Amino acid sequence: MKSKRSKIRSLLTDSNFENNHSSQIRSVSQGRITAHKFEPSAGEKPLLTDSNHLEMIGKKTFFPASFGLVILMAFIHKGDTIGQALQLTMSLSSRPLLYPTLTCSINFDFMTTAEVEMLSISGPRPYSKKGDLEDLATISKWDPTPLPLNGLDDTVANVTGSFSDWKKELVISWKLPIFRLSQEYRCTAQGTDMNGQPVTAFETITVNTEESALDDARDADDFNLLSDRIDDLVANSSLQAEEDFHAIENQVRDLESSFALRFQDVETQVEKQRESMNSSAETVENLDKALQKIRQNLLDLQQSVTQLQQKNKDQAVVQRFFKASIPFDISGTFKGKIYFISKTVADFEIADAAASCEAYGGYLVEIDDTEELKFISDFASQRGKSVRIFTGANDRSREGHFVYYKSKKRVPSFLWNRGEPNNVLRSEDCTEIQGKLNDVTCGLPGKYICESQ
């Protein structure tokens, strides 16, 4: 910046620059624009005297025939965010909106006064009935490999991107359809300004679809309904449940066979009617309608089979928790989640605890906000205040950088108790819940808490 200022001063004090002329500065960026009068006789007078502005040299110069050199400059207010120091773009592909592709990128077509350190895309969590914005994917200068978050795996969407000096981009391409009528997604850029202060910018885009036919089907899988039936599932043995399911499957197969025979019979009748010149057109039309109705019944039946299979799968997940070799205390539901605290006190090994959670369909707890923290803290205090209850947050990969074990997402600062994390004796790499989070030494005796969607 100093070299650019020197060049401009030399131009302004050059004898070829005509005296007593001034130029009105025009917009060359999204920042706040200020008019500045250039006086060649000012000598070493500072280029800018307004302390409320920062300078950014524009890319354009032009030479009026009779007024000498006029330089276009833009001045960005100190309070401006990163969104005014650079151009942030959120775009939507032209694919069908049930399978959108979202692109979050930085436009380098003009000069920036901020350093971008991270891009992220937020939106509703996959399969969630709520429209709350949660981080779905991030990419940063520390980790230029795109990182999917909150259940966004390769069965749901492809996450790609690039984070280099000349290209900063994050892309989510959905593989599964989106059935919500209106969904908002947000592109966020984080970084630092010229003074080293943190700044943030975001752009939002709304995806509108015309399909909501499967909302009712998804309601059947709602976890609240599953929770209401836990007592019934515990009372029934797994053998009885399996026998009931097989009985339903046999009934479905019988119905399919019956419909298949009727379908073949109707097809034969339709063919005969078509071959017969004496058959009336009205009779053929009625038989065609009957055939279409049977086909629709078969499709509905196949959908019912799929729903029964999925329902049985969800019930099996809950039953595995009740039959676990390590017993769990189970919470009520909170925003579509349930929480499991191990009943056995043992030396905490984070990898073993994570494997135990995953074996029964969950993962070590990851706290997103203060409401969830309070729910979990109240649930944990009911299990005994004198026992440590460990979470999945740790800084074993990088000292002082606490992240969750499964998602690798950084732990929010507002979740810590006052003065924490303090790394006593430089050995506290795990975390426990004591109202809020404390960092503690791994390997101490205690319990651990899992969560499941």
From TrEMBL:
Listed InterPro entries: C-type_lectin-like (IPR001304), C-type_lectin-like/link_sf (IPR016186), C-type_lectin_CS (IPR018378), CLec_Tetranectin-domain (IPR051663), CTDL_fold (IPR016187)
Keyword Disulfide bond: yes
Cellular component terms per the entry's GO annotation: extracellular space
Cell compartment(s), UniProt: Secreted
PANTHER family reported for this sequence: C-TYPE LECTIN DOMAIN FAMILY 11 MEMBER A, TETRANECTIN-RELATED
Protein name: Cd209 antigen
Residue ranges that the Swiss-Prot or TrEMBL entry lists as coiled coil: 277-311
Annotated SUPFAM superfamilies: C-type lectin-like
